[in-house]
Amino acid sequence: MKSLASKLIGFQKLVTTILGIMIPTIVVIQVLLRYVFKAPLMGIEELLFFPTIWLYMLGGANASQQRNHIECGILTLYIKRPKSIMIFKIVKNTVSLIVSVWLLYWSFCLFKYSFNAWKTSDLLYIPMFFLESAPFIGLLLMTFYATVEWVDHVRVFIRERG
Description:
By secondary structure, this protein is mainly alpha-helical. The protein is built from six helices and no strands. It has helices spanning 2-36, 44-66, 74-78, 82-117, 129-132, 134-161.
């Protein structure tokens, strides 16, 4: 299971890196075409939208995997006992997991609708499914990593308690 997770993380980081290189490259090409060669390429902004949304969703998944969430840690300043801190982390992760599953459900509805409707973009006629599947895939990864984090916290709590 750990090798599957490490391969998934490796693939996720590879795709994120490729997208992170692709986006500025497309912008540089557009700037060169528009201002140097005076020949703007129609639809490049539309093309740029696809990797941007994917990078955003995979960036959220990377933050979940690395446990680098944006959080407000005010309560942890006042909680002193290690057992209370662990209970707080479990409750926090439970709420996060519930919200993640709820958003995953709605993103799956979008995913199904997008697959069935098979709309295309206005200029380049790229299937919008490739854009609209990003929230589902990103939230699926975030839910997976949130579940792993929750299990880790519960295991630590049980181990320290026993």
